[in-house]
Each structure stands twice: as structure tokens, then as C-alpha cells.
């Protein structure tokens, strides 16, 4: 804008005042000197703090292990998100409500954790009880007597079904 206002005739006092106000408005929100330096340092600290916190949360999350002990040895599996135990030991956590141990059967007891669902007794796939069979096939098909007593001359033999010279091939099907 300043190149348009300068010309061979020069600037009048009013135009110079307007140009000065325009330049002031362009840098109204900008910081200068010590204020600019402090503001830049604050932004850098904030970036380091947020990046460091996110990276630290990621490293601690990836290194969290299950808190369960098996034969006095700590489990080496990674814990589930937002939990203290892995999938095999999640039922030891008394505060969780998403998993229940499988009830199993009388012959084979099972304690595998199963996600709670709408079923009354959630079971693992090994102990899942299938619903009763909907279709029951009939034991013997009753063939009407009139079909049994049909004469055999109504049926064609395999030799009669073969195409012959008198009957073209396209009509043999």
C-alpha cells in the first residue's frame, strides 16, 4: 500500500497520517522486544511440556505389565488398556466389570475370562451350549402306494436317452 501512495507529487499531510495509522494497525497484535522474546520462550516450554507428557504417557503405557503373580513369579504379559491385569488374569481384578470367569461344565472346570454379554451365563467357545436343533428329520418317508405300483415301461432306459441319428443332438437334452 505504501508504494501506491508515493508518487511524484509526494504525500500530503493527511495521507501521511493515514499511512502511519495503517502501519500501526498492521502490527497492532505483534509483540516486540522483551515481550516477543518471553512469548516465544513460553510457547517453546508449552510445546516441550505437551510433547514430553504425551511421549512419557506412551512409554509408561507400553511398559505396563500385568500385576498378577503365578507361582511367585510376576506375569510378563502386557496389561489391558485402562486395567492392571492382562487378559488371562483380568478376573483377579475386583474392580472390573467387563469380564467373568467361564463356568465350564461338571467334567471340565474352566476359569478362562469371558466378556460379559447379554447371556445369563457367559461361556468360552469350548463350553458354549448350543440351542436345541430346530429341524427334526422324519424317520421314514412314506411313499404312496400308487407310485410304487407304477408300471416300469413309463420310464426310459439309459440307451433310449442317448442321441440317435434320427434325433438331432440339440433336441436330445
Automatic annotation (TrEMBL):
Please state every residue range assigned to the domain named KANL2-like probable zinc-finger: 72-127
Q: Where in the cell is it found?
A: Mitochondrion; Nucleus
Which GO terms fall under biological process for this protein?
chromatin organization
Which UniProt key words apply to this protein? Chromatin regulator, Isopeptide bond, Mitochondrion, Nucleus, Phosphoprotein, Ubl conjugation
Q: Which GO terms describe its cellular component?
A: mitochondrion; NSL complex; nucleus
Which Pfam families does the UniProt entry name for this protein?
zf-C3HC3H_KANSL2
Q: How does it assemble?
A: Component of the NSL complex at least composed of KAT8/MOF, KANSL1, KANSL2, KANSL3, MCRS1, PHF20, OGT1/OGT, WDR5 and HCFC1.
Job of this protein: Non-catalytic component of the NSL histone acetyltransferase complex, a multiprotein complex that mediates histone H4 acetylation at 'Lys-5'- and 'Lys-8' (H4K5ac and H4K8ac) at transcription start sites and promotes transcription initiation. Required for NSL complex stability and for transcription of intraciliary transport genes in both ciliated and non-ciliated cells by regulating histone H4 acetylation at 'Lys-5'- and 'Lys-12' (H4K5ac and H4K12ac). This is necessary for cilium assembly in ciliated cells and for organization of the microtubule cytoskeleton in non-ciliated cells.
Q: What is this protein called?
A: KAT8 regulatory NSL complex subunit 2
Q: Which organism is it from?
A: Todus mexicanus (Puerto Rican tody)
What is the organism lineage in this UniProt record? Eukaryota, Metazoa, Chordata, Craniata, Vertebrata
Q: Gene behind this chain?
A: Kansl2_1
